[in-house]
Amino acid sequence: MSCATDGGLCVPEPAFVKRLCAGSFPDVGLLLMSKDAPFARMYMRGDTDGWNADGGASARARLYTDEEMLVLKRRAPATNGIVVGSGGASFLVMRWDGNCYTLDEGELSTKAPRSPRHASLPFRFYSEQTKKALLERPKILAAYQARGKECKGAMSGEVSKACERADAALSAAIVGEIRAGLTIPTPETIP
Prior knowledge:
30% helix; 9 strands; alpha+beta
């Protein structure tokens, strides 16, 4: 993974970013968030509703205070027309779940919080090779098994609070292992 420089920040290549944000690539999200990835990170200053102003596949979502984001590109401030928001620069960022969002400069901080938060991860949408690599880690396997016990096969819809907690614990286990140095295999589909 190599850097393109954008406003002094290390970001992925622009053509790659355009393809990434046009589709759904949760496995690639994990790869880009890996400990050894050179790309710039920023953190949410507060809760906000997010969407991708560049278009693409990301749906609206609630983004939370202290949530870690990977910087994909800096968006220059508008020079003509109607200005919405702060009127300053904004950033295209990616959450841990692989979705892209556009955020104003004032919504982000470069200072890492003591315990950065992360999005809920879409385990069921990972490729089989990614699932296999993740489940080889004892912490992730234990969280996955606990989720299976609590959720009884449910993947969506109304679930119990215990299932929600187990799902959050699985996401936390995956993020923890990747932050500790786990690298997943190169995904079969790269944008």
